Structure formats: C-alpha cells, structure tokens
From TrEMBL:
SUPFAM superfamilies: Periplasmic binding protein-like II. Belongs to the bacterial solute-binding protein 1 family. This is Multiple sugar transport system substrate-binding protein. Transmembrane segments: none annotated. Pfam families: SBP_bac_1. GO terms for cellular component: periplasmic space. It comes from Salipiger profundus. Keywords: Plasmid, Signal, Sugar transport, Transport. It is found in: Periplasm.
Amino acid sequence: MTKTKHTPVRRTGPAHVTRMDRRAFLATGGAALGATTLGMPRRARAQGRTEISFASASFFGSETFGDLVDSFNESQDRVMVRYLELPPPSSSTEVYQGLVQQLARGNGTPDVFSQDVIWIAGMAAAGWALPLDEFVDDAMTSQYFEGTLAACKWDGKLTALPWFMDTGMMYHRTDLVEKHGGTVPTTWAEMAKMGKAAQEAGDAEFGFVWQGKQAEVLVCDAVEAIASNNGAILSEDGRSSRIGDAEAIEAIQFLHDTINELQISPSDVLSWDEEPSRQVFTNGQSMFLRNWSYVWPIAQDPSVSEVVDKVGAGPLPHFEGGSSASTLGGYQLGMNANTSDRDAAWEFMSWMSAPEQQKRIALNFGLGPSRPALFDDAQINEEQPFMATLRPVFTGATARPVTPEYAKVTLALQSGISKALVNGRVEQEMKALSSQLDGIVG
C-alpha cells in the first residue's frame, strides 16, 4: 500500500446527509464553485497519455482522494487523471451544484465523478450519466452488495459503479443490555420493552434516541422503519406512492409512539438531527441510538464519551414478520455521458472500485466497502474491527426512493412525516402525503 504524508483528520459528523434544491440552483445559474473549480481548460493529452478529469467531494482520513489519483497515475502509462477536489460532504449542496453545472454544459468535464447515492437517478434521467452496461457483466456486478447495486441503477440500467457506503445502524449500551435482558433485541417491540426497563430502573434517562428533525435524516429514519415492516415509500418502478399503505402507516405510528405512548424517546428528538442525538447517547443518557458509522470512534474517545467500552452496534430492529433495514448512504462513481474518452474513464473508475482500492479506502478513510468479500479481509478485521462487524448491517442496506424527482420527493416526505409526528394524525397525514407523492412521481 502506498505510504502517505498526510495527517489524519477526524470526521466529526455524518458524511452523507444531503438536502438539495435543483430548481433553485438552476434558477440562479449555479454556484461559483462550478466555474472556479471545475471549469479549467481541458487538454487532450498529458505526456503522451489520454488525460481525463475526476471530480469528487473531499473525504479525509490518513490520506486524501488526491493520493489515490496519484497512485493510479503512477500505476500505468496510458491514462493521466486530473483530480478536481470539491468541498466535503458536509457541504453537499455545493458539491451537487458544482457537478450539475458542469455536467449540464455537455463538454465532457469531469469525465468521472463521485455522487451521493440519492443523486444517481436524477443524473441518469437528465442524460448526464452514461449507462455502464457495456462495461460490466454479471460476474462483476455479483461482487457488490445487492442494495448498493440496486441504488446504482435507473430505468433498469447500471448508471453508477458502487464505491463506498454507509448505512444507519443501532447502537446500544452493552452493560444495560446485559442487565436488562442479556440479548440485543431484534424487533422494535423488544427494543422498546428493554429501553423502558432501563428507564424505570434509573439506568438511562431515555430508552431510545433517533432523529426526527424536518430534514433529510428524518427520511432516512422513516425509510428504515417502513422497510423493516415490509413496506415502501414508492412502488418498485418509482412512479407511484406506497406511503399510505398499512405497513408504512404502522411504521410511522411507531416512531410517533416512542415519544407519546411508549415514552422511551424525548419530544426533543423532533428537533434533533445526528449530532444532538449522538451527544445524548455518548453522554450516557440513552440505552439505544439510531445513527451512522461515524458515531463509533467518538463513542470510544474518553475525551468526549462517557460510554467508552460500553457500546455495541449492529442491525436495526424490525417489526414482527419483517427484517432489518438500514438506509443506504455513501458515494458511487459515475461516467460523464459526454466524455470523449470512455475507455480511459472506465479504466480509472473500475480501478477506483477494485478490491485493492476499496480496501485502502476502508483502512485509511474508515469508509465501508461496497464489496462483501472485503469484510472477511484479515487486515481490515485487525485494523478496523468495528467495520468488520458491519457486514450484516450493509447486507440490509435499503435505498431511499429511487426517482429523478428525489429533490421534490424528499421535501414532501420531510414535511408530511413531520406533521404526522407532531399532530399524531398519522394515517390522515400519510394518506395526504401519498396523494402528494403521486402527483410528483406519477
């Protein structure tokens, strides 16, 4: 593995949370970021090689994606990749806007780009992402997690190549689980019962904390609850709503009831996103927490955590008759439909998604591989023991609604679900939301 000179940069928040408004962006003509960062002149050759460009949000660990690009350039003499560094995912709106502006120009720059999983359908429907079916076969695609692969498809075609992933998961206090049952609960009912017991014994102020803020993360929490009850937000073809179905209504009702009936969650969760809920858990106030993988290293840091060595993590619970579901996050690779160097672009992006690079990203960035086999890797098991336990979580990864209208869909979901959680008229609000979604995607 290539050694680097970079100092580790600690990630202090989730890297996938996105809220975008494409209409507002296009109306303003795009951010200056796109013009200044991506709009550089393009050369056809670099030292006798085919030159292409790669644009990606900045993820930091013990190295950067620029180091990965350097390694590719040094590994062969056919293709030279120019790295166009975008802001980190915490500024995902700017990342999205910069990509949209450049791809819409149709000049082929960037040739390859990384994209949040929820952008894939929109990029493909707009004709900006090239279908990759000519480059892949079943033997290759079978090496990725099914959930990630499904999220990389639009209209039956593979329009993105799986790269790295993150998913929602359930954190628990190992000491309190041992005291109040001994076995990590697998159903929502079991979790609620155990959390309530810990509350009543005075061992935890709250049984369960999650994210109910009217934001993208609320959609993530809802996707998990609904899918774990064999429900869905949209139909499989993405052209009609299912959030008015009984399974979805029951799931949202449960989230409401954690606050109002079961009283294992504080009403404050309705204003919380990831960090406030994480802080409550690492302060030792809650028995269970739904959150993302970034929480683990913070929970083990004695300078900020009161629960060091008392935390476990695993798949989220499910309803009776259902199965655990975790919202899929992460960034995947796309090829510009207007690139003039398809073979060079594919050589680079397939190299970036290969097992060796995914392993390097797992070890040096702490980002989950999209290849199940890497979770059996001895070095990952030794150096990233927490990640090595996440295979069953990633196996249950579920995509958010796959639709080119996602920007409109997510805003409708955030508003409709938030109303239901506040006023308690869950069935009424979900029926109204279903009609609204039908109008958007139908």
